[in-house]
Specification:
Elements (H helix, E strand, L loop, with lengths): L12 H20 L2 H18 L9 H22 L5 H4 L16 H10 L2 H12 L4 H8 L3 H23 L11
Helix pairs in contact: 1-2, 1-3, 2-3, 5-8, 6-8, 7-8
Length: 181
Amino acid sequence: MHVTDGMCGDLDFESLVEKHHASLYRFALSLTRNESDARDLSQQTFFLWATRGHQLADPTKVKSWLFTTLYREFLAAQRRRTRFSHHELAEVEAELPEIPPELPTHLDWAILAECLAQMDGAFRAPLCLFYLEDYSYDDIAKILEIPLGTVKSRISRGVAQLQKLLLKRLRPRPRTPKTKT
């Protein structure tokens, strides 16, 4: 290797690339099994040499530094891919949370009463006592003679059930085209 002043690591960068590029690329290709990724990994390794190579105290360990750096960059890329995996939206659509449309701020009492009547009674009673009669969780537990945790669970599940019923009731129905006669 040619030693020049002013180059990162005090080694001639071009000579370093000429000497180690082919073997680094082969190593990267064996890891990635993809030519494009192998080129990117080799390029990243030489970039890191250009920015950090001056920190290497023993110039005889350049090759080992390059291979170690390439391998560490490969592992870091693997961790990023695992942590932030890319999927097409159609592939993971079923896994996405359902975000219901916003409920209106003012409801007609008739619609609410109709939806409450359709609810499971186990959820309706705690829900009505809490929201319509302003009873506390403890009071509801005493009135219904059920544990406090059950009250909280039934209110939570009741709210979810009521939301579904309201959304179904309030969702605009698709218009059927009128046929001309």
